[in-house]
Design a protein that fits this description.
Helix content: under 10%
Mean pLDDT: 96
Radius of gyration: 13 Å
Order of helices and strands: EEEEEEEEEEE
Distance between the termini: 40 Å
């Protein structure tokens, strides 16, 4: 069974950093574009970032460009999101997803992890 499990969320002060991890299992991880999505309370699901299968091409939404870094380790079947210079508006539930650039209609998504940015 294909599965994605996120970890690493929590409470952080504005300007701080967090690193999210996502463990993939049950499918050929290296064959897929992988993404991070997020959903803030009362708002729609939002695409955050995508990384290509093997050459590591990356794409970011304008709201996180320059602050977040997506990466992957195909040997370990892991996806990461390094989040720096966090802002209160980054508060959301973050999801690891199997999907393409700019898309929120992923065919596989994890259960999500909460990130709260507050002083």
């Amino acid at each position: 069974e294909a599965q994605l499990v996120e970890s690493g969320g929590g409470l952080v002060q504005p300007g701080g950093s967090l690193r999210l991890s996502c463990a993939a299992s049950g499918f050929e991880f290296s064959g897929y574009f992988m993404s991070w999505l997020r959903q803030a309370p009362g708002k729609d699901l939002e695409w955050v970032s995508t990384i290509s299968q093997t050459f590591g091409s990356t794409w970011y939404s304008d709201s996180v460009k320059g602050r977040f870094t997506i990466s992957r380790d195909n040997a370990k079947k892991m996806l990461y999101l390094q989040m720096d210079k966090l802002k209160t508006e980054d508060t959301a539930k973050y999801y690891c997803a199997r999907g393409g650039v700019g898309r929120t209609d992923a065919d596989l998504r994890g259960q999500g992890v909460q990130v709260t940015v507050s002083s």
